[in-house]
């Protein structure tokens, strides 16, 4: 049984992940962590009243010897310290939380290497999103003018999404940086052309009713291509999380992208 701690257990993703772990025959939930929660045990929450799982409020309280995998679905402000703690205590992080800066990822990878601990940072655990990013990188070889529209629920803290940023980074690996649109254009309303990543524009939609969706738009002479993925429910991320948890124990570095484990 893989012994798992879920950080962010009361959040939208954390709650979904706790349910997945509890229902997975190969996983054991040995702890949950949220510095803002008041519960001392998960059984203080009605739906989990039959369980006996410690709820930690401070990193220093966590019985690290009992934890093999740290699943993190917290916040952009919290994730770096959480993952650093896990790696330094030889716990393999499976990180869904987005908003880490490139330098923070590099620093965490150095810590993972020093401690010989495997882990994964995945901006998106949904297979439709992983495929979208792969297809987009392929398409950009032939259609290098790209704009990305990501659409999420209106409670999301970061923009653009980690998935959109990762899509742009993957495309940038094979696309030479160039300006898109009229170089003399004026934004009559600041921000009208969206965020700019090496010339690619990224647009973030935040609306109630949405969960997680992304469109990658390509334009070329006389033609266009749109690739789209939709996550209608947070259950769409769970098979990817389960794959990562099952495989991470064999890794000895901090990987970025679920595709590294598929
Ligand atoms: N990779 C993927 O496939 C996916 C990634 N995500 C990402 O996951 C993250 C969480 O999303 P979502 O669940 O919607 O957000 P929520 O705000 O619903 O959940 C985050 C939870 O983490 C808690 N939290 C805050 N700080 C800490 C901390 N230091 N340690 C532990 N828990 C903490 C929050 O508590 P409080 O509210 O009290 O601050 C909250 O309960 C986001 O970064 C999002 O982009 C989301 C979906 C899929
Ligand atoms: O906040 C979310 O909900 C999601 N965040 C991730 C991101 O920022 O890409 C993954 C998915 O889009 C859902």
By DSSP, the count of extended strands is 12
Cofactors, ions, other ligands: NADPH dihydro-nicotinamide-adenine-dinucleotide phosphate, the ligand O=C(O)C1=N[C@H](C(=O)O)C[C@H](O)C1
Distance between the termini: 21 Å
Task: Give the overall silhouette.
Answer: elongated
Uncertain regions spanning at least 5 consecutive residues = none
Structurally, the number of domains stands at 2
Number of helices: 6
CATH architecture type of the largest domain: 3-Layer(aba) Sandwich
- Gyration radius, in Å: 20 Å
Instruction: Name the CATH class of the largest domain.
Output: Alpha Beta
Say what oligomer this is.
single chain
Largest sheet: 7 strands, parallel
CATH homologous superfamily identity of the largest domain: NAD(P)-binding Rossmann-like Domain
Short characterization:
With 262 residues, this protein is of the alpha/beta class. The protein has helices at 12-23, 79-88, 102-115, 127-140, 162-172, 238-247; strands spanning 2-7, 27-33, 55-56, 69-72, 92-95, 119-121, 145-152, 195-197, 200-206, 212-220, 223-231, 254-256.
């Amino acid at each position: 049984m893989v012994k798992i701690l879920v950080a962010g257990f009361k959040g939208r993703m954390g709650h979904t992940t706790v349910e997945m772990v509890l229902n997975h025959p190969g996983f054991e939930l040995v702890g949950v962590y949220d510095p803002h929660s008041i519960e001392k045990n998960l059984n203080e929450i009605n739906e989990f009243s039959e369980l006996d799982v410690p709820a930690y409020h401070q990193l220093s309280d966590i019985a690290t010897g009992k934890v093999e995998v740290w699943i993190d679905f917290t916040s952009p402000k919290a994730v770096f310290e959480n993952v650093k703690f896990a790696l330094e205590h030889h716990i393999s992080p499976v990180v869904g939380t987005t908003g880490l800066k490139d330098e923070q990822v590099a620093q965490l990878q150095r810590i993972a290497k020093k401690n010989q601990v495997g882990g994964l940072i995945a901006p998106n655990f949904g297979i439709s999103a992983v495929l979208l990013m792969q297809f987009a990188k392929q398409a950009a070889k032939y259609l290098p003018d790209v704009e990305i529209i990501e659409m999420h629920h209106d409670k999301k803290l970061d923009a653009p999404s980690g998935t959109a940023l990762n899509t742009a980074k993957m495309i940038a690996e094979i696309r030479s940086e160039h300006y898109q649109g009229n170089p003399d254009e004026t934004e009559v309303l600041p921000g009208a052309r969206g965020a700019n990543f090496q010339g690619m524009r990224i647009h973030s939609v935040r609306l109630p009713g949405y969960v997680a969706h992304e469109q990658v738009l390509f334009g070329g002479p006389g033609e266009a291509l749109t690739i789209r993925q939709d996550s209608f429910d947070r259950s769409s991320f769970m098979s990817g999380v389960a794959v990562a948890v099952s495989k991470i124990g064999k890794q000895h570095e901090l990987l970025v992208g679920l595709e590294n484990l598929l």
